[in-house]
Design brief:
By secondary structure, this protein is α+β, with helices and mostly antiparallel strands. The chain has 26 helices and 29 strands. The strands form nine sheets. A five-stranded antiparallel beta sheet has the order 6-3-5-4-10. It has a five-stranded parallel beta sheet with strand order 21-22-25-20-26. The protein has a four-stranded mixed beta sheet with strand order 13-12-11-16. It comes from Methylobacterium soli.
Length: 756
C-alpha cells in the first residue's frame, strides 16, 4: 500500500517511505523490534527505554533510523503525542476481542467506522482521534473485563493504546505475517469516539486484586515445589532459550517459563537469575509480579502451550508426546535428559544419531563418549531423610541406560530430511525414521535486500540466462529443501576478490551452519569426505585441477540421491550427497570436463574488474543485515518452470571450458581428424599423423580406438589399401556407412582424397 509518494527524491526503501508518510500525518514514529514488538534503540537494536521522548516526525532522523537498518519495524507513539487512541481487539491465546467489543458497545455505544489494521496474530486495531477534552487516556490491558463477563482482566481481548502507549504499523512483520491496513491512512480520517467510550477510557483504571508482592525472591508462593531447574533446562528446548537466547524470548514464553521454573527448587531465585540475563528488559518488580500470577493463578503450562508460542523449538522435540509438560522434566536426571534431548537410537545397525552435532555412533562409541556422565534415578522404595525418593546411581553402560529410558527416542532408521519438522516420523514404507536435519538457517524477514540484488546483478551475467538459473537454484534450495538439484554451478573469473565467496556464503547462511559446508581443493581430495554428506549446500572454494580427476570424482555427488559414505573414525553408511553444489575458481580450467555432452556442470565466466573499496565496504556493512530479507524474497520467487533434474545448459563459457579441458592427446586427435576431413579413414593413417604431432611416446592403438569411439567413429573391418595385398582397419563416422562393402569404403577413401 502506498502511504505517500516518495517524500525524498530517489527513495526506494518501503520502510522509510512508510515512516515518512506517517510523520506527514503528524504521527510520532519510533523504530521497533518486529519480533518482540518493543521499541528498539536505533543505535543498538536493544529495547529502548527513551522511546517516549525520542519518538519523532523529523524526516532527517527517520532517514537515519530506517535508511540502513531495515530490520526495524515501524511503531507509532499513541495518545496525546500523536493525537491517536488505538483500540486493540486480540484473538490470540484463547481471547475473543471482537465478541468482547460487541458486549462493550452495548454499554458505551456503537463504535464508528475508522482507520483499521489487521495484526499478525489475526486481531484488529482501530485508530481513533484522541479527544482534546480528555485529560488522561491511560493504556489498558483487558479493558472492560467485568462488563465483557470475564473473571480476570487478563482473559479479556480488548486493550487500549492511549497516552504514552505504542502501536506497531505496516510494513512491520512478525511470525511470518505482517500488519496490514484495511484502507490508506492518507485518505481515511480518524473517527471520533462516542461520549460513553471517552468517559470510560478517561476513568483511572482500578487494577484487579493481585497476589501479595514478594520482596524476597526466595519466598515461595503456594505452589508444588519439586525437582531441579537444571533438568528443565536440559530437557526443554523452549525454556532453555531463557539461558541460551535471552534477548529473543517473547513475553508469553517468559511468563509460561515462570510457571514451570518457579515450581522447582529455589524456583523464584532461579527465575530471577535467568530473567536478569536479558539486562535490557529485566525488572525485579515485573519479574515478581509474573511469578506471583503464574504460580498462584495458573497451573504449569503443558507442551501444547509452549509449542504454540515457539513452534520452531518444539516441532523437533524428541521428548514431546511422552510428557504432558516440561514441569515433569524437573524430576528427571539432567545428564540423562541432555542425552535424550539430542540423540535418537536406531535399531538398523544399532546406531545413535546426535541430532545437534550430526554424528553417528555405535553402541560402544556412544557409551565411551558419555562414560563420564553421572546419571541417577529415583528409587521407588528407598527414601532419604526428608522422606523423598532416594536418588541412586544408575548402573550399566550409557547406551543401555539410554535405550531403557521410556523418554528416549527410538527409530528404525536415520535419514537427513530437510523441511520435515518432525524429528521422528513414518516413511512410505512404514518405517519409523529419525530425521537428522536441523533448521538453523537465518529466519526470513521481509525487507530491503537491495545490496544483494545489486551484487548478483553485477556479478553474474544474464546473457544466456545464467543469473536467472542461479536465482532459481537458490530459491529451489529454500522452497523445496528435500529435493536434490542434479547440476553443479561453477563461477569462473580471472580477477580475484570480486565477491563470489560472499555471494555463496550468504546463501549458506540462509540454510544454516549445519546444512552448509565449504571445502577447499585439498579437502575435496581427502579420503574422508563424510563432512560433505547430509548437507543442503556444498561450496567448492577455489576449485582447480591438479593430480586427480575432480570431474570424475564429483559425478556421483552431483547426480546420485544417496551414496555410501565413510565418516572419519566411523563405518561406511548410506548418506545423502549435497542437495545443491556450487564452485568458484580463478583458474581458466578449474575442472577438466572430458565429456563433450556433459549434463552436470553449469558454467558461468565473469569478465569483471574488482570494484572500488567503497562498494565492498557497503557489502560488508549492510549485507549481513539484509540476508533475512533476501531469503524472504527468494522464498517468494516463482520457480514453477525450474526443473531440478534437467541437464545443465551449454553456455559459451562451458563450451570454451570443454575445449580447454582436452588433453594434448585429445587436441592432437581432433586436429588430425579435422585435417583428414573425411567420414571414412584408415586407422594407420590417423596414427601416423598423430605421431607427427609430437605424441610419439604416448600414442597407443587402444587409446586411439577408445577416443575415436567416443567421438562417434565405428570400425568397419579390415580391407585392402590400394592395389597391393596391404590391409588396413577402416573406420567411419556416423551410421551412414554401416554395412557398406569393402569397395564402397575403398572408393570413399580414394574419392575423398585418401591413399590410393
Amino acid at each position: 500500500m502506498n502511504i505517500v509518494r516518495q517524500p525524498i527524491a530517489g527513495n526506494t526503501n518501503p520502510t522509510l517511505e512508510a515512516a515518512l508518510g506517517y510523520a506527514l500525518l503528524g504521527w510520532h514514529v519510533i523504530p521497533v523490534d518486529p519480533v518482540n514488538k518493543w521499541p528498539a534503540d536505533p543505535l543498538t537494536g536493544r529495547k529502548w527505554k527513551g522511546w517516549k521522548e525520542g519518538a519523532t516526525t523529523e524526516a532527517a532522523v527517520l532517514a537515519d533510523w530506517f535508511g540502513v537498518e531495515s530490520r526495524f519495524g515501524v511503531g507509532i507513539a499513541t495518545g496525546r503525542k500523536s493525537r491517536i487512541v488505538v483500540l486493540d481487539f486480540d484473538v490470540s491465546k484463547g481471547k475473543d476481542g471482537l465478541a468482547d467489543k460487541a458486549k462493550l458497545e452495548e454499554k458505551y455505544g456503537k463504535l464508528p467506522e475508522t482507520l483499521t489494521q489487521s495484526t499478525p496474530s489475526g486481531g484488529t486495531q482501530e485508530f481513533y482521534a484522541r479527544p482534546e477534552e480528555a485529560e488522561d487516556l491511560p493504556n489498558r490491558t483487558g479493558f472492560g473485563w467485568q462488563i465483557a463477563g470475564h473473571q480476570n482482566y487478563a482473559l479479556c481481548g480488548v486493550d487500549v493504546r492511549g497516552d504514552a502507549g505504542q502501536a506497531n504499523v505496516p510494513p512491520t512483520a512478525r511470525a511470518g505475517s505482517a500488519y496490514h491496513w484495511h484502507s490508506d491512512p492518507i485518505g481515511t480520517p480518524l473517527a471520533e469516539l462516542p461520549a460513553g467510550w471517552i468517559e470510560a477510557l478517561s476513568e483511572k483504571p482500578t487494577p484487579p486484586p493481585k497476589p501479595p508482592m514478594f520482596s524476597d525472591p526466595d519466598a515461595e508462593p503456594k505452589a508444588e515445589i519439586k525437582g531441579k531447574i537444571e533438568s528443565v533446562l536440559a530437557g526443554c528446548a523452549a525454556i532453555s532459550r531463557l539461558k541460551t537466547e535471552p534477548g529473543s524470548v517473547l513475553q508469553w514464553l517468559w511468563a509460561m517459563a515462570a510457571g514451570v521454573i518457579g515450581r522447582t527448587e529455589r524456583g523464584r531465585q532461579n527465575f530471577h537469575e535467568l530473567s536478569a540475563l536479558d539486562k535490557d528488559r529485566y525488572d525485579k518488580d515485573d519479574t515478581n509480579l509474573i511469578l506471583n500470577y503464574m504460580l498462584d493463578k495458573t497451573g504449569p503450562h503443558g507442551c501444547d502451550s509452549f509449542a504454540k508460542e515457539v513452534p520452531d523449538a518444539c516441532a523437533g522435540c524428541l521428548i514431546r508426546g511422552k510428557i504432558r509438560g516440561p514441569k515433569e522434566l524437573a524430576e528427571k536426571d539432567a545428564n540423562l535428559l541432555g542425552l535424550i534431548r539430542t540423540n535418537v537410537y536406531t535399531t538398523d545397525g544399532n546406531k545413535f544419531y546426535d541430532t545437534e552435532r550430526r554424528l553417528v555412533k555405535s553402541e560402544k562409541d556412544f557409551s565411551a563418549t558419555h562414560d563420564h556422565l553421572v546419571i541417577k534415578s529415583a528409587s521407588p522404595d528407598k527414601k532419604d531423610d526428608e522422606g523423598k525418593p532416594k536418588m541412586l546411581l544408575t548402573r550399566g553402560n550409557k547406551s543401555k541406560v539410554f535405550t531403557q529410558s521410556p523418554l528416549a527416542a527410538k527409530a528404525d532408521i536415520g535419514e537427513y530430511t530437510p523441511g520435515e519438522v518432525r524429528r521422528i516420523y513414518k516413511n512410505s514404507l512404514g518405517q519409523k525414521v529419525a530425521n537428522t536435519w536441523i533448521d538453523d538457517g537465518i529466519p526470513a524477514v521481509p525487507g530491503d535486500c537491495s545490496v544483494w540484488e545489486d551484487h548478483i546483478d553485477w556479478l553474474v551475467p544474464n546473457d544466456e540466462g545464467e543469473r536467472d538459473l542461479w536465482l532459481d537454484v537458490m530459491a529451489h534450495s529454500l522452497q523445496r529443501p528435500n529435493i536434490k538439484i542434479r547440476i553443479a554451478l561453477l563461477l569462473i573469473s580471472r580477477n580475484h576478490q570480486l565477491g563470489k565467496g560472499a555471494l555463496i556464503e550468504t546463501w549458506g547462511g540462509m540454510l544454516g551452519a549445519t546444512n552448509y559446508v565449504k571445502l577447499t581443493n585439498a579437502e575435496l581430495r581427502s579420503d574422508f569426505q563424510g563432512g560433505i554428506y547430509n548437507k543442503r549446500l556444498a561450496f567448492f572454494e577455489e576449485l582447480f585441477v591438479r593430480d586427480r580427476d575432480i570431474y570424475g570424482e564429483t559425478k556421483a555427488l552431483i547426480t546420485e540421491p544417496k551414496l555410501r559414505a565413510q565418516l572419519k573414525f566411523q563405518d561406511f553408511a548410506p548418506a545423502r550427497p549435497p542437495l545443491a553444489i556450487v564452485a568458484a575458481s580463478n583458474e581458466d580450467v578449474p575442472v577438466r570436463i572430458t565429456e563433450p555432452a556433459d549434463v552436470r556442470w553449469h558454467v558461468t565466466r565473469i569478465d569483471r574488474e574488482r570494484r572500488k573499496p567503497e562498494y565492498y565496504a557497503r557489502l560488508d556493512r549492510e549485507g549481513p543485515r539484509q540476508i533475512a530479507a533476501w531469503k524472504a524474497k527468494l522464498l517468494r520467487r516463482n520457480i514453477s518452470n525450474f526443473n531440478p533434474a534437467a541437464p545443465a545448459p551449454m553456455t559459451k563459457a562451458k563450451a570454451a571450458l570443454i575445449a580447454d579441458s582436452r588433453s594434448p592427446f585429445d587436441k592432437a586427435l581432433d586436429h588430425v581428424l579435422s585435417e583428414i576431413g573425411r567420414e571414412v579413414v584408415i586407422f594407420s593413417e590417423v596414427k601416423s599423423k598423430m605421431l607427427h604431432q609430437g605424441l610419439r611416446g604416448s600414442v597407443q592403438d587402444p587409446e586411439i580406438a577408445k577416443a575415436m569411439k567416443a567421438r562417434g567413429w565405428k570400425p568397419q573391418g579390415q580391407h585392402k589399401i590400394g592395389h597391393g595385398d596391404l590391409k588396413g582397419s577402416f573406420w567411419s563416422l556416423g551410421t551412414e556407412w554401416d554395412g557398406a562393402s569393402a569397395g564402397v569404403l575403398q572408393a570413399a577413401v580414394r574419392w575423398q582424397g585418401g591413399p590410393g
